[in-house]
Amino acid sequence: MTDTANVAWVGRFKDILEGKRGDSRIKLLHKMLRNESNKPGRGNTGCGYSGLELLPDGTIYATTYLNYAAGPEKHSVMNTRFTMEETDALARRR
């Protein structure tokens, strides 16, 4: 485990079949709960896998879960929505 984020992979199905990296990855959520012993990018990395829905207007709707706090109430279901145009614009600004 090397990441503490929920990430959407963008690419073609052919990329998956051929083991290629695809076009990009979009960070959906980041897990903030960490221990002092956790090195950056390692340890305490439990977070969910996204269910993605492409809406008729081109919006991508992601539903996922993550652990955000210690204790029995530590799990949360999260939703986010975005378009590829929005993410491309953000990438150009970097």
Description:
With 94 residues, the protein is of the alpha+beta class. The chain has one domain. Helix content is 16%, strand content 35%. The chain is built from two helices and five strands, in the order E-H-E-E-E-E-H. The chain has helices spanning 13-17, 84-93; strands at residues 5-10, 24-30, 51-54, 60-67, 75-82. Strands 3-4-5 form a three-stranded antiparallel β-sheet. Strand 3 and strand 4 (60-67) form a beta hairpin. The protein is globular, with a radius of gyration of 15 Å. The two termini are 26 Å apart. The mean pLDDT is 75.
If you average the pLDDT, what whole number results?
75
How much helix, percentage-wise, in residues?
10-25%
Low-confidence stretches: none
Number of extended strands: 5
Can you tell me the number of structural domains?
Answer: 1
State the major sheet.
3 strands, antiparallel
Shape designation = globular
Q: Spell out the helices and strands N to C.
A: EHEEEEH
Sequence of strands across the biggest β-sheet: 3-4-5
